[in-house]
Design a protein that fits this description.
Subunit structure: Interacts with SEL1L. May interact with OS9 and DNAJC10. Interacts with TXNDC16.
Shape: globular
Cofactor: FAD
Number of domains: 4
Family: Belongs to the FOXRED2 family.
Radius of gyration: 32 Å
Number of strands: 22
Keywords: Endoplasmic reticulum, FAD, Flavoprotein, Glycoprotein, Oxidoreductase, Signal
Strand content: 15-25%
Pfam family, one: Pyr_redox_3
Structural class: alpha/beta
Length: about 675
């Protein structure tokens, strides 16, 4: 007994040395602050650890030349705040209207220092619980039966203070520079330390390794003072307007393409950087050679004894020596702080710089560990905007909703409507929803049909990668089929080698909507919820499995899908075909007629006319309906078509009341014949 008491006291003392929180967030960058906002709004126990003295420390250093490439469109011609977020790439989501980025900068491409100030205000004005000057240096697991996920996360900071959490949200971003090691790489300057003063490059010849925005940003800064600039990378340049991926080269940085193609000495080359080697001569000039030339050679013997490519090929492209070589190869995730027990593994191929995560942003190796922000971009790498603020602000909110359902029994937010509002609900969302627009092909609206398709539930911005797990992840049931609303580009429109400005690139007719190239809404209909097997067998480049029916709303030059004939009518007919019902809205007179001539009333009559609800008629409204062809002009003839009636509504009603014979509409004979 004494031994048990002693052991228990040791356990209690050990446990007391850990500061406990339900949620721990590592990193107070944009995604960490966004997660903190939602945790605070729902009253959860959380803490955010930030190694610096202020939030957004990455933006205090990068981009080096201080101009962001995330647009700040202050005017759209509309006052709808949700729509305006489609063109605001810097604001985080909150209820506070003061925290819109357009209130901080007038620049279309803002200064990075403005982002730092914005993030500081976001944290302070919303009173987020951020613990600054706290660098988490080690993370491990502790198995425990009573923990939410079967284990706790144990964190240690630089002062050896320990923390314990039930759920871990990693929002550290990508900040470890990508470095390629090859002979002579010690002569290479890194993007993170190279001078940003153009005068330091005056009259010099420069080689830049890399072909992303940081490489072109660096070139743009020194373009006017150098002899010439060469840029080398293993892949060809990818232009964002061709790939429709905002992480590719943006027009604001592409001045080097002009000077290359317009014969102004600068140039682009393709080659594997690991095959290169750099040799420094006695004058300090840097010569580019290939690694195999150095094999079995003594490089310390001097450059004169080393064979260079131009010795065998006198027009070798990089035969001119360089004054400086700059590495601009981007960043990768820091795996060093995570114990092997967490099984935080890098991805494969071009995703190896990211940790492996599931489509719900949870680590593949450890339950309860979620990756947010830029580091979660492996889910939609080179496809959507999940690696950038205007994308991961929505995926972070989605993760919070998943956690609310998993740990606190709070179902995914939804709104219920009668089926008569189905068309209107879809049209409203595709015209203003910013999450669908920015995270195209990744987040989708889900419409869950109720029994007999008389009503539906609307769920916003759910990750389509876990559609098969919808009932478990959201706490909502889908026994009667569902619609999935998503935004997509044309299948063959985007790519590094695509000409996106070709003649007749746009589709304008509704019957050709499936050939739309630009971003447009697509509605998938499933009679049952797709399974995991369905998801695994979906066609290449399809975000979803093959549906029972699919509808493309034709692309629109103004991204305004409200045209009655081109957009709304085809959508309504598609929905009617899927549900075998009539989704039109009818006047009371039509519902009255249908009550005598149809066995089944349209839904709008059931929820309106039958319940003595709906639009109150007037002479002006009646005349407008007649002129539009929506109603017959019963003011001129009676139902039998042989006697003029009074022009007024009251006179018509009096005439009917005085007639002892109830008039029969010609359609009634068809009904009677059918019944017989």
């Amino acid at each position: 007994l004494g031994l048990a008491v002693y052991t228990g006291s040791l356990w209690a003392a050990s446990d007391a040395s850990f500061l406990y929180h339900d949620y721990c967030v590592i990193g107070a960058g944009p995604s960490g602050l966004q997660a903190a906002y939602y945790l605070q709004q729902t009253g959860r126990d959380y803490v955010v650890f930030e190694r610096s003295h202020a939030p957004g420390s990455f933006f205090a250093l990068y981009p080096r030349h201080r101009k962001l490439i995330s647009i700040n469109k202050r005017y759209t011609g509309k006052s709808n705040s949700e729509f305006n977020l489609r063109h605001d790439w810097n604001s985080l989501l909150s209820h506070d209207r003061r925290l819109l980025f357009r209130r901080y900068s007038r620049d279309f491409f803002p200064d990075a220092d403005t982002m730092v100030r914005y993030l500081e205000d976001f944290a302070s004005l919303l009173k987020l619980r951020v613990q600054y000057n706290t660098a988490i240096i080690h993370v491990t697991l502790e198995r425990h039966e009573q923990a939410w996920n079967g284990h706790y996360f144990l964190l240690t900071d630089q002062d050896r203070q320990n923390y314990k959490c039930s759920s871990l949200l990693v929002a550290t971003g990508m900040w470890v520079p990508n470095v390629v090691n090859f002979p002579g790489s010690e002569y290479v300057e890194g993007y993170e330390t190279v001078s940003i003063n153009p005068e330091d490059f005056a009259g010099q010849t420069v080689l830049i390794l890399g072909r992303g925005n940081s490489a072109f940003e660096t070139a743009e800064n020194i373009l006017g003072v150098t002899n010439f600039i060469h840029m080398v990378s293993r892949s060809r340049v990818h232009l964002s307007w061709a790939t429709h991926y905002v992480g590719d080269l943006r027009a604001i940085n592409n001045g080097l393409l002009d000077t290359y193609q317009l014969k102004s000495l600068d140039g682009l080359l393709e080659g594997d950087l690991e095959d290169l080697a750099i040799i420094k001569d006695k004058k300090g000039k840097l010569h580019i050679t290939l690694r195999f030339y150095l094999e079995n050679r003594n490089t310390s013997a001097g450059i004169d004894s080393i064979t260079l490519p131009q010795d065998e090929l006198d027009n070798f492209a990089t035969r001119a020596p360089y004054d400086r070589v700059i590495r601009c190869l981007g960043w990768k995730f820091d795996f060093s702080i995570y114990n092997r027990s967490l099984r935080m593994m890098p991805g494969k191929g071009n995703k190896k710089k990211y940790p492996q995560i599931k489509p719900n942003y949870e680590s593949r190796g450890t339950r309860g560990l979620f990756v947010l922000g830029t580091a979660s971009h492996s889910v939609d790498f080179r496809k959507s905007a999940g690696g950038f603020i205007h994308g991961f602000r929505y995926t972070t909110r989605a993760v919070h909703r998943l956690l609310e359902n998993r740990h606190h029994g709070v179902p995914w937010p939804s709104t219920g409507y009668p089926i008569t509002q189905l068309t209107n609900s879809i049209i409203k969302r595709v015209n203003e929803a910013s999450g669908l627009y920015q995270m195209f092909s990744v987040l989708a609206d889900i419409i869950l049909l109720r029994e007999n398709a008389t009503a539906f539930e609307y769920l916003e911005e759910y990750p389509v990668g876990v559609l098969a797990e919808l009932e478990m992840q959201t706490g909502r049931k889908a026994p009667n089929g569902l619609f999935v609303i998503i935004m997509e580009y044309g299948r063959n429109f985007s790519g590094a080698d695509k000409d996106v400005f070709y003649y007749n690139r746009a589709v304008g007719e509704a019957q050709h909507a499936w050939q739309s190239n630009f971003l447009h809404p697509v509605i998938y209909y499933y009679k049952r919820l797709p399974t995991e097997r369905d998801m695994s067998l979906r066609p290449p480049d399809w975000p979803l499995p093959r549906p029972d029916a699919i509808h493309h709303i034709v692309e629109d030059f103004l991204t305004d899908w409200t045209a009655p004939n081109a957009h709304i009518l085809p959508l309504r007919r598609f929905l009617e075909n899927c549900l075998s019902t009539d989704l039109r809205n009818f006047f009371a007179e039509s519902c009255f007629l249908f009550a005598f001539t149809r066995q089944k009333l349209p839904p709008s009559c059931l929820v309106g006319y039958v319940r003595m609800q709906g639009l109150v008629g007037s002479e002006g409204l009646r005349r407008h309906a007649v002129e539009a062809g929506l109603l017959e002009d019963y003011s001129l003839t009676d139902f039998l078509g042989n006697r003029p009636l009074s022009d007024s509504r009251e006179g018509s009603q009096d005439q009917l009341l005085r007639d002892r014979v109830v008039p029969v509409h010609p359609l009634q004979h068809l009904v009677n014949a059918k019944d017989e």
